[in-house]
Amino acid sequence: MEQWQCSVCGYIYDPAKGDPDNGVDPATPFEKIPDDWVCPVCGASKDQFEKA
Amino acid sequence: MRRYVIIGNGVAGTTAAENIREMDKEGKIDIITDESTLFYTRIRLPEYIAAEVEEERIVLHKPEWYRERNIVVHLGKPVTDIDQAKREIYTTEGTTLNYDRLLLATGSHSFVPPIRGVDKPGVFTLRTIKDAQDIRDYAAEAKRVILIGGGVLGLEAGNGLRRRGIEVTVVEFFPRLLPRQMDVPGAELLQRQMEEMGFSFHLGAKSQEIRGTQRVEGLLLEDGQILSADMVLISAGVRPNLDLAQKIGLEVDRGVLVNDRLETQFPDIYGAGDLIQHRGIFYGIWPASEKQGQVAGINMAGGDALYEGTVMSNRLKVVGIDLVSAGDIDADEKLEKRVQKDEQRFIYRKLVLKDGILVGCILFGDISGAREILHAIENKKNVQALKDDLLVKGFDFKRLES
């Protein structure tokens, strides 16, 4: 599964880890994250992410 | 054909332009700014001054992005005045633009406290990419920098310089770091960890004068100590850019006042981003400005959207360390609490209780369970029966949700 990076702050979404603090379970591919999810570091919207 | 003018090319102005174009394929959209770079992310400027990323990575929209959307950007053009009767705006360059809908998204600037010598070469603030370029150039020759102000942004910038091998000394008026987010033991732990990284601190210290004949040579503190340095970075918060709004007579408190549609008191003039105050709140954070830009853009294009506020995140990264701080952190130690502290691993976790209800937390260095803990605080959950287990290793935080 591919990692995605927040272009606003540089945070990397690692699908292996997910983002459990914000309701995204480990092993969730980026494409499957809900559209209203935001970057856990800076709060930028999901469409600000690009493939790392 | 409707004419839209947006003053400011930060996240609020750019998001507004994008949303206008989605709704109005024909209209003429102009973004005008005093900055000389296309839309970029200032959040990554500390990495830029550390020379870890280049401008190309920080600039978020390339010229194609504007071309594809038929949005014209005018760089390097400060707006000097607006004639509401003629619906015209003027710049120092003599450019005139006409508008039917106008968005003020002029952002904010670094606050510079009145310290003698702040105008000397070698004194910087960090807000724009231009600031970052100047800092990066100057830092090439610098060995020691003094950071005036120990907030999150300042520490981040200082950490960028430290990674370039520059000695960083933090001078902070408050007696502890991050006073809003941290109590005394938490702040001490953060400070010790940063000292191990190479930072030095003068807390509870007031800056009196920046010394140096040609350029910065040091800082005189009020107690008479002189700290030597070749560079000073002031990080004392931001203030909205209100000059233009005030010039045209808009009502201003801390920021320009707007309603939930992000309309100012004047017809067809909207406000979004760091310069506004919405329901009494000045945000100054990326996600708020992004959302405001979206709402303003939709409304300017004839739609109907409301901005109802942005929840301030309780989660921070301080010099790479995770920190969650929320609710009443009981800095003056009056309430019941549960604390887990691991000085070797730099972990500090504190939960604050009032009559069995979880009212606040500090999670530093280990933010496991943050989501459930924040929910419990928000829902004023009674955790009386669980309170002695909450910080025990292996606690299943799902139990807080039931």
Describe this structure in words.
The complex is a heterodimer of chains A (52) and B (402). Helices cover 0% and strands 15% of the residues of chain A. Chain A has no helices and 3 strands. Chain A has a 3-stranded antiparallel β-sheet, with no helix packed on it. Chain B is an alpha/beta fold. Helix content of chain B is 23%, strand content 28%. Chain B has helices spanning 11-23, 45-49, 55-58, 63-68, 129-139, 152-162, 184-197, 243-247, 286-300, 370-378, and strands at 3-7, 28-32, 71-74, 79-83, 88-91, 96-98, 101-104, 108-110, 123-125, 144-148, 167-172, 199-203, 207-211, 218-221, 226-228, 231-234, 238-240, 256-258, 269-271, 276-278, 315-318, 321-327, 336-342, 347-354, 357-364. In chain B, helix 1 runs parallel beside helix 9. At the A-B interface, loops of A face helix 9 of B.
Looking at this protein, list some descriptive labels.
heterodimer; A: 52 residues; mainly beta; 15% strand; B: alpha/beta; FAD/NAD(P)-binding domain; Enolase-like, domain 1; 3 domains; 5-stranded parallel β-sheet; 25 strands
